[in-house]
Amino acid sequence: RAMKVLLLTVLGALFFAYYWDDNFDPASLQGARVLLTGASAGVGEELAYHYARLGSHLVLTASAPHPLPRQVVGNCRKLGAPKVFYVAADMASPEAPKHVVQFALDQLGGLDYLVLNHIGGALTDMRSRSAQATNWLLQVNFLSYVQLTSLALPSLTDSKGSLVVVSSLLGRVPTSFSTPYSASKFALDGFFRSLRRELEVQDVNVAITMCVLGLQDRAFAAERVRGVTRAKEAPKPKAALAVIRGGATRSSGVFY
Known about the structure:
This is Hydroxysteroid 11-beta-dehydrogenase 1-like protein. Pfam families: adh_short. By secondary structure, this protein is α/β, with parallel strands linked by helices. It has a single domain, classed as NAD(P)-binding Rossmann-like Domain (Rossmann fold). The chain is built from eight helices and seven strands; from the N terminus they run H-E-H-E-H-E-H-E-H-E-H-E-H-H-E. The protein has helices at residues 2-19, 42-53, 67-79, 96-108, 131-159, 179-201, 219-225, 236-248; strands at 33-36, 57-62, 84-88, 113-116, 162-168, 207-213, 253-255. It has a seven-stranded parallel β-sheet, sandwiched between helices. Helix 5 links the parallel strand 4 (113-116) and strand 5 (162-168). Helix 2 packs parallel to helix 3, helix 4 packs parallel to helix 5 (131-159) and helix 5 (131-159) packs parallel to helix 6 (179-201). Residues 1-20 and 217-222 have low confidence and may be disordered.
C-alpha cells in the first residue's frame, strides 16, 4: 500500500511538472489584448477580473443583453483594465462569431489572446433530448469555438498570440446522463489538439492551451452532482487564475 501511495505521489508530481509552467510573469499581460467569451458569470467573470487586475485590454461577451454583464464591465474598470468593451452575442447563431471577432478587432486593433469560455446546455440523458436541442448545444459548445478560432487566427498569427480553450473533465471521461454535452466537449479536445499539431507543422507561432476544469463552485454544477459525488467544488477565482497562468506561459494543458 505504501508503495502504491508513493507511486501515485510521484506520478502526480510528474503530471503537474509537465502541465504547469511556473515561469508566470504577470507583467506579460499588461496591455495584452484579450477577447474573452462567456464573461458574465462563473469562471468567466473571474477571468475578466484577473485580466483587469493585470492591466489587459478586454472585449467581453455574454449571451444576451443583461444588467450583470454591465456590472462586470464596471468592476473591470475599477480593477484597472485600461479598456473594457462588452458585446452581446448568442453563440447559437452562426453569425455571432463573425460579429464578435470583428468588434474585438475594431476596438482593440488586434488580438493577443482569444479565451473561449462560453457554454450552453444542461446535463441530460440522450433519450430525453431532441435532435434539435442537441444540434443547438453542438453549435454553442463546439461549432462557435471553431468559427471564433478561424476568424481570430490571422490576428493571433500576426501577434504570435495564444488560444485558451476552457473545457471540462466531461470532455475526457465518458459520463452517464451527459451524452450530448460530453460529446461537445470531446469534440473540442479533438479539434484543438489536432489544430495544435497543424500549426506546429506549418511553423505558425500560436499557442493553444486546453484547460480541463472539474467541478466548480457555481449553483449549476453543485445542483447537478448533488447526491452523486462528495467532491467539493473548486473556488472559481483559483480556477480562473490557473487558466490565465496556463495561457500566459503558453502551456499545452491545464487541469484544475
